[in-house]
Write a structure and sequence with these properties.
CATH class of the largest domain: Mainly Beta
Order of helices and strands: HHEEEHEEEEHEHEEEEHEEEEEEEEEEEE
Strand order of the largest sheet: 14-16-18-19-20-21-22-23
Number of domains: 2
Largest sheet: 8 strands, antiparallel, barrel
Structural class: mainly beta
Distance between the termini: 78 Å
Radius of gyration: 26 Å
């Protein structure tokens, strides 16, 4: 073989290897969230809510949004700390059990906490003019519920990636997440750009199928809330790259007693519901009367009768309890009758059939309950039932009524249902 040809082959092989290496590096850079997580990680804290006897009742995630030499501000989800007698945050193994108090409760499901400890790392939010659209790849981070060892061994937050912005309900006020398993405890955690670490939203709830969740939009909800409280949704710019730091394995720590996971929410002795003295209350629909709706399709007048067969939800320590089985919150029966006319020849009467609905979002600010549902019954009968439903109720006052609204292909209708309050001694986390 000629020497010149051999040199050309070696040169081509080198170019190909370099290209493959660069290509592989590009895939790694775009295929993980390590860069973004490195930016957002120092701003994450664990949030604990305690009752009057000092027992933990709830836990979640918080994000440091402002810090000076004397105090820091932490943003979390309102339902994490609602009704708490005491609040504490954990930053890490060497900085934990810091007392916090509510500074301001905001719109949707946001609460701003103040901590008498300065020098914490404030997060950076994406600028308001940056668009967040369906299909964006995002990451989520935070502490799952009952991670009690954070203050002892420095347990790290969980990172969920890749997630997808699947929809933006109410013109982008909410961000719906898919393909990320949002666990309990991640409420208050950030939805962030996997490359820059800039926060795009704050997690508020998870979907019933555990395939995703909902977040309040950073640009439309979180940013304005912080600005109204004189908090710049920014934080310091990212530091310049530094040389790798050599990691020295930590010395083993002596055993320390830790908190036990609370698998059942029990009633604190000093807790007081307005009527019953309990902080765990079941709200159940009463006087469930069928309601008839009439709509037109192709000149045919069709009557649909909706009977809410079951409606119940549980509030424990000022937070909604997520059900674990299908149709636990809302069940209905639907019947259909078509008018006797030529336009209705192809529309069959249908006898009553039952269907279940599962919540896709649940919100409670201590007074007002909002839920969104999706049909969860048999797939073959899905076209007979409204595809979506919602519930709104103000739990204040002597008489409480829930408005349940249904959304179908051709019609939309609502039913007002009185609610009955029943005090409970305890509620299992798997009800």
């Amino acid at each position: 073989m000629r020497p010149g040809f051999t040199c050309v082959r070696k040169w081509l092989a080198g170019v190909m290897l370099a290209a493959l290496a660069l290509g592989a590096h590009g895939v790694r850079a775009a295929g993980d969230a390590s860069a973004g997580y490195e930016t957002v990680r120092p701003s994450l804290v664990k949030v604990w809510a305690f009752d009057r006897s000092g027992r933990p009742t709830e836990s979640g995630t918080g994000v440091v949004v402002d810090s000076n030499a004397q105090r820091s501000l932490v943003l979390t989800a309102s339902h994490v700390v609602a009704g708490a007698a005491g609040i504490r945050i954990d930053v890490g193994r060497d900085l934990h059990d810091l007392a916090a108090r509510v500074m301001r409760t905001g719109p949707r499901d946001l609460t701003l906490l103040t901590v008498d400890r300065g020098g914490l790392h404030a997060a950076r939010f994406a600028p308001r003019q940056r668009p967040v659209v369906e299909g964006n790849i995002v990451a989520v981070a935070g502490y799952v519920k009952n991670d009690e060892l954070i203050g002892v061994v420095g347990q790290e937050p969980r990172v969920l990636f890749p997630g997808t912005i699947s929809s933006r309900p109410e013109n982008g006020i909410y961000l719906e997440l898919e393909n990320v398993h949002v666990e309990e405890g991640l409420s208050g955690g950030p939805v962030f750009d996997p490359e820059s670490g800039e926060i795009l939203g704050i997690v508020t709830s998870r979907t019933s199928d555990r395939r995703g969740g909902f977040a309040d939009s950073g640009a439309l909800v979180v940013g304005p809330f912080l600005a109204a409280n004189d908090v710049a949704a920014g934080g310091p710019p990212p530091p310049p790259p530094q040389a790798p730091i050599r990691i020295v394995p930590p010395r083993p720590l002596p055993p320390v007693a830790t908190l036990a996971p609370a698998l059942v929410i029990a009633v604190p002795p000093a807790a007081r519901d307005r009527d019953s003295g309990s902080e765990i209350v079941s709200w159940r629909g009463s006087e469930l009367q069928p309601k008839r709706f009439v709509y037109q399709r192709g000149g045919c007048s069709i009557a649909v009768t909706v009977d809410v067969s079951s409606l119940e939800f549980v509030v424990a320590h000022q937070a909604l309890v997520q059900p674990r089985h299908r149709g636990a919150l809302l069940g209905i029966t639907v019947a259909q009758r078509a008018a006797a006319s030529g336009a209705c020849e192809d529309v069959a009467d249908e006898e009553p059939a039952g269907g279940a609905y599962d919540p896709t979002a649940m919100s409670f600010d201590g007074h007002h309950v909002t839920m969104r549902f999706v049909y969860a019954g048999a797939g073959g009968a899905a076209d007979r039932f409204p595809s979506d439903a919602s519930l709104d109720a103000n739990l204040d006052g002597d008489t409480v009524t829930a408005t349940v609204q249904f959304f179908a292909r051709d019609w939309t209708g609502s039913i007002a249902i009185p609610l009955v309050r029943t005090a409970l001694a305890a509620v299992s986390s798997t009800w």
